[in-house]
Amino acid sequence: MGKALEPTLNTAQNAPEPASGVNEDYSRAIASARIACYDDFRSAPRVTEIAPTTTAEFIENLASTIYTQAQQAGGSIPYTAIREVSENFIHAQFKEIVVSIFDKGNTIRFTDQGPGIPQKEKAQMPGFSSATSDMKRYIRGVGSGLPLVKEYLSFSHGRITIEDNIKCGSVVTISVKPEEDFDVPKGAPTREQRKQMVPALSDREKDVLYLFLDQPTLRVTDIVEELGLAASSAHRALKKLEEAGLISTVGKMRQVTDEGLRVIDALF
Question: Three-state SS for 76?
Fold first, then answer.
């Protein structure tokens, strides 16, 4: 009977695990990330490298670069969705991050070689989280990130998929349907025109309004806890949104209006 071959250093099962891309307390990314932007699949992508830096700055640099390149390619995936998925890389310890942008910026694939996401359905449901106390210094860590992305994408004719990477890690793909694929009535405003029709809102007011995409009715305490705002700041933002006709007060709750939903669609 033939002797079984011993694994060599070149075999997949004996390959070393990717080194962690973050230091021990998660305060600093110590590995770079790569962004590949494809014009089409007949030519090599343009590759951008995001250098290691502090965790907060690394996530911001990564998300903003992805967003800028996707927008320049003609995509309409909002920064908020890109940021939420980028933050999720902390669970993979920033191991071997590669982000691919294609389909004219309307599809973005986020891959890593971390521990993976065994329970993919639960990862898309509110409240399920594996965030540690160290991670929560840089992300909310309450299990709201991917559910928010899923809700936005379903609202915008898009979708999110979560798959296993080839050897280890996860592949998260988010995509939206290009606007030209919709049956838009003749003379209807484009997305860019709709953006120009929305009231002037601060970044904080936009953040508050975005929460109503996931929950059409919210308490002030929900907003305070989700965004980490002072109660007075939340009340000021809500007052501005109500004056603009984007939300209304129902008892002790705030409810998004039809106009608010239109503005959410235009902004995000």
Answer: coil
